[in-house]
Write a structure and sequence with these properties.
237 residues; alpha/beta; Rossmann fold; six-stranded parallel sheet; globular
Length: 237
């Protein structure tokens, strides 16, 4: 008779001993201080008001250093751009990019108006990219030009060959019918796409007023982000 414990019963414990006390696997901790019941936009406004001159973040590689007030203003410019592109509460806005200042702006700007940012893995290839964009119905995609040996713009052309013949913001893709707008982070013209600089220059007082109205209707429990798995053993989930 073996003296080794069964692999079906690690540690040799019986079922009663392995069962969590109280029959529940939930872990409870302190309830004070209470969780903050504010939206991302409300917290950003509050931080810009109280600590506006303090650094919000620094991207040494890109030569960017913003205070909270500067960051809030940059977010608001992008908010106006998103609204000008027709983004509404609940719409999916994708971002395909490594770490960049624009990534943070897109997350805060989408949350500010109740849109949902969809993170597209920077390592995705064409099939994975198409699957993820189609799965959640991305309406607007922000994209880096590329990463290492990956040419993101060429891959997008492969998925949406129609884009080169469409006006920016009016993409009519057979394979990705929900995707209407692509915004790239380059400083050049690309057929069928807007640049990030163009997007942040769109809109004005009307869009800002509408954004303020949208923010008042948001709830701190609203979804603001969708994450995909790497897709190592199958389609991304």
């Amino acid at each position: 008779m073996s003296t080794h414990p069964s692999t079906d019963n690690p540690g040799g414990l019986d079922a009663a001993a392995r069962r969590p006390i109280g029959g529940s696997a939930h872990v409870k901790g302190p309830t004070t201080p209470a969780l903050v019941e504010q939206t991302i936009g409300q917290l950003l406004d509050a931080t810009a008001a109280s600590d506006g001159d303090r650094d919000a973040f620094v991207f040494v590689e890109h030569g960017v250093r913003w205070t909270w007030r500067q960051f809030r203003d940059a977010v608001d410019r992008l908010v106006c751009g998103l609204l000008s592109l027709g983004v509404e509460r609940g719409d999916r806005v994708g971002i395909w990019s490594p770490n960049r200042p624009e990534w943070v702006l897109v997350q805060f700007a989408t949350a500010r108006i109740g849109a949902v940012m969809v993170n597209i893995n920077p390592a995705y290839r064409v099939s994975e990219l198409e699957y993820a964009l189609h799965k959640v119905g991305v309406k607007v995609l922000f994209t880096a030009v590329g990463l290492k040996s990956s040419d993101y713009l060429a891959m997008l052309d492969e998925v949406m060959p129609e884009m080169a013949h469409n006006l920016p913001g009016q993409i009519a893709s057979k394979r990705l019918p929900a995707l209407k707008t692509v915004v790239h982070f380059g400083d050049f013209y690309r057929a069928g796409m807007f640049s990030f600089a163009q997007t942040t220059g769109m809109g004005g007082p009307a869009q800002k007023a509408y954004a303020d109205t949208l923010q008042q209707a948001l709830d701190s429990h609203d979804a603001i982000n969708v994450q995909f798995t790497s897709g190592t053993t199958g389609h991304p989930k």
